Every structure is written in structure tokens, then in C-alpha cells.
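Extended Data, panel c. Modelled sequence:
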Amino acid sequence: MSNEKILNMKLPSKLHDDLKQAAQERYISQASLVRMVLVEWVNSNNTKGESASKLNAESAGGDNENSLKVTYQNPIDTSTGLFDRAPQLHVGESRGVPVITNKFNMTVPQNVFLAKRNIVDYIWKSAKLEGLAVTYPDTDAIYNGLVVSGVSVDEILAINNLKHAWRFILDTLDYETNYQFICKINQEVGSGNLIYGAGYLRSIPVTIGGTEWKPDIPSESMVKEELLQISGMSNPTDRAITLMLHLMRRQLFVDGNKRTAMLAANHVMISNGLGIISIPINKQSEFFTLLIEFYELGDMGKIKQFVYDNCIDGADFSAS
């Protein structure tokens, strides 16, 4: 961009510590949070009245991690001590990050049994979450290879792809739920030309129904960094829910992101014997409302608690 400028700055230590804490609480990269905070900051404090929608921030390297290289397109008046007033932003506030514990403690074979026993129900609910106009009997018939009338070819393909994707994650429970694995899940979800470029990071913008918010184009290096941070979470139920919500908001692929995210989360859940994440039909409207709020605000506290309270299926085998 022709009028791009670069400002080398050093964050006040208080802001740097707050940013680091807030990034950990929201399970996003610190660089992403820095960018969001600076955009809000400059837009609300800039004396020139210019927006900073093109502003970006990244580590300037070196030994001092407080140092940032801030790139901006619109003018920013730095003579007013703008960057010295950082603590006023209160970026370290967690806004009610829930404490997540394991609701179920099964053996892996028990959890696999539960998944296979209810697999048609999980596929149907996942399909409805994506807006597919299929009934439970339709889903059951398609799953079992029967001919179904009144259902489109794409909907039949979507159900069969979910069937194959579920088989894939159940057959690979000893695999790490990493970047390559998540791409493979999307490839399964979108096979048969159901999704353009299935299995590969999108390189085109996408829009999301119900909001004007648009996710950034993903970069492989940043995605891997974010996934590595999530993988370091100690509690696996918390890690699974966080991974699911993060992938939904990140929109890594052209389509099938919610299906991919839920399957990836369930790979974590089942491989640890912790149950299955599935959004009940009568809770999907509320889930979507919270999801849109999460998309727009970037704070997963409310929707994480909702998923934990309402969307984890499991069984107590010790009682049988």
C-alpha cells in the first residue's frame, strides 16, 4: 500500500503483561490480540479522526518481546502520548472465563462404543447445524445406504461424508489433533467436490450469515501457532471445547468449518474418554446466537460455558 507507514514502538510493561494474560485467557495468539487492541485503541483515541482498520502489529524480534513493529495505513498521531495510556484499556479482563472440568470419565473403548451407538444422531444434529434439510429418518436411511427420495444429491453426499469423517476420527484416536489432522478432517467432510478446495486453507474471503464480521485470511504459520497454544491446555475437555470454538471462528476452510471443528473436538474428547460434543436440536438456536456474539467480540466465555453445560453427551458405565 502506497501510504503505509511503520512505527517501531515499545509497549509499556503493564500493557505487555495484560496482553499476555488476556491472550492466554482467550486462547488466541498474542499478536492477534495486540492487533485487535491497537485498532480499538487508535480508533477511540486518534486526534486526527482517522480509523485504523488497516493497522497491524507483530513482534519486532530481538531479545525484548515488548518491542513491536506497528504497520498502519491511516495517519496516527503519536505525539499525544497515545501509546502511554495503555492500562486504560483493561485488556487483561477475562470477562468471566469459565472453569472447565471433565464431566465424564470413560475408558476409550467405552467412549467409542457410545459414539458408534449414537452415530446417526450425532451426524443428524451436525447436519442440522449446517442447515441441511434432512430428517432423522432420512439421515438413518442414507447412513445405511438406502435410497431416499426428496433429499438433494449434495445433502446425501454431505451425510455420507460425515459418516466417513466419523469413521476416520474413530480409526485414528492415537493420532495428534494437529494442523495436518484437521485439514484431513475437512478433506473428508468436503470430498466428492462438495467443498471447493477441501482440506486446504482458504485463500479467498468468506462471509458469515447473521453478522457483518469477516474472518481474516488464515496463514499456515499463524494457525499452527494458535493450535500449539491450545494443545498446551492441561484439561482435555476445556481443550476440546476451545479447539472447536476457535476453529469455528477462524474459518480456516472455504466451507464445512463447523463440521470440521466439531469432529476435531470430538477426536480430543473420545481419545481421552470424556464423551461427545453434540449440539441438541432444541439448543441450536441459542448456540447460534452465542456463536455470532463470539464471532463479533472474540470472547468465548459465554459460549464455552453453554457448550459445557448443554452439549456434552456421555455415560456413567460404572453404574451399570
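Residues 5-89 form one domain. This feature is highlighted in the accompanying rendering.
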